[in-house]
Amino acid sequence: MVGCNTLIWVIFQWVQTSPRQKIFWCYPGRSQWFHDTVLQLWDDRQWLENFRMTRRTLFGVADKLRPYLMRRDTVMRSAVPVEERVAIGVYFLASCSCYRTITLVFQKGSSTVASIVIEVCLATEHVLLKEEVRLSEFNKMASSMKIFGFPHTIGCIDGTHVPISPPKLQGAAYFNRKSFHSVLLQAACDGDSIFFSMLTGHSGVNHDAHVFRSSMLFSKMEEGTLIPGSPLFTYAGVSIPPIILGDGAYPLCKWLMKPFAVPRNDRERHYNKIFNCSRCVVERAFGRLKARFRRLSVRIEVHIENINSIIAAAVILHNICEREKHDIPDEEQQQRSLADSQDGSDIHDCNRSGTACAEAEAVRNAISEYLLTHVK
After folding, report:
1. Distance separating alpha carbons of residues 39 and 99, to the nearest angstrom
2. pLDDT surpasses 90 at 152
3. Can you list the pairs that 76-83 forms with residues at least 24 positions away whose Cβ atoms lie under 8 Å?
4. What angle separates helix 82-94 from helix 55-69, to the nearest 10 degrees?
């Protein structure tokens, strides 16, 4: 009996002191691919092709998100570094690859990749939204739009559908007029294709005007508080506030201009011509957004509650890339059609009525007179 107890004690001591292999906690394969290849060998061209941003830009984003993405090592495994976590999230947005493919690329577990993607998008929205999606100085915004001819203009607004996987029991609520399930992204941009306002979360069945009236942009422009001081431009005795350009889907306001539905004379036709040339900046911005982050062009296979954060993260990172003057690969830019952005051609014209409409008509007529005499 004593000998048996001694043997048990010896076995117990051996188990306690012998090294144990971690057979369930490490994903087999090239676990150091990102550190040994991407960080050590890739140049800026390869970073732009795969992550849509340079190493310096991605590391700058990682530094800002570090307090929210840092994880501690455990006795079972080492934590994924913040830079690699951000790279996984950005790679997800920049490609059409599914989680299984990203798992093979980064050599992480599929559940790890899925959780990292959502955490990176949530952190990006929480930390960087107000910092990156914001108004620039009014004079700078107005001058960037004046290149196209419109005076006192801060930018253009439009909407685009982002395909999603239909949520259970609510699929019909997200089935849009283009015959697929989507969430509507409505955004306004300046003349440099940088978004200064965005709203997402409404299902694709909603009309642009309904989404627009529920936005903070609409409220602040109605109150005249979006632009500090709300500077006025006076022409032909009409006071013109800072204006935004929108298509026929939006209501005509004294601060939101739209084309004449049926131009009746040369002045109105000239206005529509200049208007269309100016408003295409927002279509180009959506085209660059979806060319840069192709995830917004394919059906996003995540839970509906995470869709908004994914879209917001793409818009935020797009603004960062535009401010850093990062190019989009030529083949991506050529493949990205602007057809995904709504041009309003198949949406009924939306108008307001009463005094507000009369004021808006006066502003539009004054602008059309200005364009006829000052812009050819």
Report:
1. 22
2. no
3. 76/22, 76/25, 77/22, 77/25, 77/26, 80/108, 80/112, 80/116, 83/39, 83/58, 83/59
4. 120
Cα 172 from Cα 156, distance rounded (Å): 30
**How many other CB atoms are found less than 10 A from the CB of residue 78?**
12
> 29 pLDDT exceeds 50?
no
CB 232 within 8 A of CB 210: no
Cα dist from 185 to 173, 179, 246, 361, whole Å: 16, 17, 15, 28
Q: Tokens 């642009």 correspond to what residue?
A: 208
pLDDT in tens, 263-309: 999 999 999 999 998 899 999 999 999 999 999 999 999 999 999 99
Show Cβ contacts of residue 199 under 8 Å, excluding neighbours closer than 6 positions. 185, 186, 187, 211, 214, 215, 216, 217
Q: What is the pTM of this model?
A: 0.86
